[in-house]
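This week, look over our next protein:
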Amino acid sequence: MERPSPNSVRTANALVSLVVLLASQLPFGRPQLSKPNIVIILADDLGWNDLSFHGSDQIPTPNLDALAYHGITLNNMYTQPVCTPSRVALMTGKYPIKLGMQGPPTYGAEPNGLPLTEKLLPAYLKGLGYSTKAVGKWHLGYYRKAYTPTRRGFESHMGYYTGYVSYYDYILQDVYKDYGEFSGFDLRRNDTLAWDLVGKYATDVFTDEAVRLIKEQPASKPLFLYLAHVAVHTGNYGKPLEAPQSEINKFKHIADPNRRTYAAMVSKLDESVGRVVQALYDKKMLENTIIVFMSDNGAPSFDDSGRNFPANAGITPNWGSNFPYRGTKNTLWQGAVKSAAIVWAPQFQRSPRVSQQLMHITDWLPTLYTAAGGNTEILPKDLDGVDQWMPLTLNTPSQRRDVLLNIDEKLRYAGIVKDNWKLVIGSTLNGTLDGFFAAVRSQKQYDVMGVVESVTARALSRVSDALFLPKPEPTDMLALRYEATVRCGPSAGPRAPSPCPQGEACLFDLLNDPCETRNVVRKYLTVGIDLYEKLKEYRRQLVPQTNVPYDVAANPARFNNTWVSWVY
């Protein structure tokens, strides 16, 4: 038989790519009746090791596992190290350093917010004809009403404005130097306080609202739903972890009571995902929906005793686990900035995979705008986000080469990833958080049939039948899980010394050392210099941090013990 010429092979490959691309626009022979619905589910402070599709057996997450095994597990997606900056990046498509939002999160009594000059993701999608709905956490400013969600592109918002609330009473307690404790209620439907929801569990409340919005969505309009959970963020002092006792009782195999409650919180989050997927199926929207699940950053973890957080850490642990990655929330280690993330769409079910494509949370704005039928040429030229829709659809290399992790000019630390290299300069809290925390090991056998029988898997299976798509077998699921599990050599404990003592420059080869154990800056000095020069380029674009002193006028005691916009 005659061997095909290189030109004919290239032509055939191009035709295959074209067919796949057309399939992404017109799913598998069915006319696409509308733009795809887009659902972003954002977890808060969720640890890499708290999801069973990443290889941990301690907390089963069958609905999230099913979504991963039918879609794309994004094993190389980065976020910012803390809450507000990650949300800034998601909503604007820009690195927070360009907006002065790279520092600590915005506090309840801080008269600050995401600059009003910025057009946000919901506003872009609204311009394409989308209904835009927000549920849950905002944390992008509210001291003036102009900063609140329904003034920034969302048609409705049910949730809270501040950084976190307790899970049953929706109270935020903040202690401010010179002012003392400010305590107040923070839950509303648009501008109306939702007192009637006190006593109901937050994860259920936000899921109920998401399901209601899906049920009531007009068939004539595509939906953009942003579901930003409080889970699994720690709550107020005295009750940092909360979950229904019936859910906690499912985790008796976990000895530590705090970790047990945390597991129940993760389980309720997983249940929420299943309920949202089921609602989309019931409404006949699922086969034309893109679902993105991710965490805003890693967990503020705990040490191996499960009791003591590092001294002077300045953050409250939630008993999550970023293992085997180093570090916790609020650092530049992988444990903080590597997000547990999944993207699902019907076309991805043709070939589920674990992706190593380099992505950053800023990428979602241009990526989803393209998926929604928008022309990225009209987007601002100064976006840092990169359109990844084609690489995700065709499984081609990422469109980005590097990711700026952060530059904090006040704390004097910075980090960048380029290809398989990572450079970190400086440290957080004098290296207090540089160790390996919460080395949670497997405690029970993985229940792959629990994934197959989950609410999400059953709904996706029915979509597969309707669109004539292949369905992953249990063996396929186990293979994907194995591939998504990060493996490192023996790691030290929480008191492990930093590989970058005194904040010296640290260079890691993430391909061969994914858990950042060996500083190779002296061996690969040229690479280190190249990344340092790139950091200097970004430093020239930095806007000084906009965090401002707290305002005593924000005290909820002035407003019937509620957190509300206080500047008019």
About this structure: Residues 1-33, 305-313 have pLDDT under 50 and may be disordered. The domain at 47-301+313-343+365-381+401-559 is CATH 3.40.720.10 (Alkaline Phosphatase, subunit A). The chain has one domain: 47-301+313-343+365-381+401-559.
